[in-house]
Write a structure and sequence with these properties.
The complex is a heterodimer. By secondary structure, chain A is an alpha/beta fold. Chain A contains seven helices and 23 strands. Chain A has two domains: 203 residues, 3-Layer(bba) Sandwich (FAD/NAD(P)-binding domain), CATH 3.50.50; 123 residues, FAD/NAD(P)-binding domain (3-Layer(bba) Sandwich), CATH 3.50.50.60. Helix content of chain A is 22%, strand content 27%. Classes of the chains: A alpha/beta, B alpha+beta.
Chain lengths: 338, 110
Amino acid sequence: MSKTFETDIVIIGAGPVGLFTVFEAGLIKLKCHLIDSLPIPGGQLAEIYPKKPIYDIPGFPEILAGDLVENLMEQIAPFKPAFTLGEKAEKLTKLDDGRWCVETNTGTKHIAPNVAVAGGLGVFTPRKPQIENINYYEDKGVDYMIKDPEKYRDQRVVISGGGDSALDWSIFLADVAKEVYLVHRRTGFRGALDSVEKVMKLAETGKIKLVTNAEVDELQGTEKLNKVGISIKGDDSKTFIDAEYFIPLFGLKPTLGPIGDWDLALEKDSIVVDTSDYSTNLEGVYAIGDINTYPGKLKLILCGFHEGTLMVQSAFKRIYPDKNLVLKYTTVNGVNGF
Amino acid sequence: MEDAVEIIVVDREGEEHTLEAPTDMNLSLMEVLRLYELPVKATCGGMAMCATCQVYIESEHELPEMGDAEQDMLDEAFFVDDDKSRLGCQIPIKPNLNGLRVTLAPAEEE
């Protein structure tokens, strides 16, 4: 049975803006539930640049993106946000009672009067190599991520990529699969040094077959994948390897994803909002952070914090139309969690 | 304009654009492409971490050497031409780039 959650604000996207919105909502006693397709909170900061310093967060002359996420998690902890991580928000439906339901790809339902889309750059999806018929072989031998390594036991596997995931999985599968080929465009690898050394050692003993200065550019097989074609630089002939699996590991890239089909007014893949409360054309649905657009929009974390702060005021008024909201300073009242 | 250079950009449809790029604003080639609303996503904002600003250099201008981050990203990028590919975000607009000619690399499929 898939789960159903109820809350005051469903926040789609657990990046910095989504996270901080929990804090501002918490101050006015609204509960939040965050959904993110990544298995960890932090969005871009966690996925693209955790080790990069950021210099324009007020009060922090310099802070690593990963540390900012950690701090935000600590800051919002008193408000006990709920999380649905590793699931993609897929459907937005209006219920008969006027509330919204956000359903994920695995069927988890999140019901609330307000939805805040804090989707940043969109949903992170694996980068696919540009091979003509690669879509055909998805689930027929081509995997973009490894969920269950046992699937590859005693199989012949071709991995491509030069980063940590390509290296780490090659090392891991060397003991599982019958044959592991690692194909990379260059002779050098950008992954962690000790992973590179391990791969080189395994290559010496033949447990990993290393093919460098090379690219996979052809896939063959009638029902299922059975041959992978590799072009090697400076060699006109193509090499074919018999393999049941091809696993390209080139990291993730963001795309707008299902949000694009939600009847939200869009402008160049961004959601158009009213800057008085960051509401969209759908009543009770807001958009904050990098995913929205308005005249003068700047894609900055600090602007997203501001947007989330104003947004929760409007969400409050939708839930309690008869209550007056008085701005309370944390210096006066402190932070009273739930 | 005095503090500007001309840059010729061939877009993905093969159309040629001549851009006037200021040299006194600390801009990268990627940022100039964005200013002129050419279809460059610049997902990572200029950190050499996404390759959506990949261009092919078509003229003989002397460009700054590739740093590790750019090299690493191009290793994992698609449509890379080893002799011509660069990331637009890693090319600062300098007076010596007057007449630079680049072609936008194809966009990755969704």
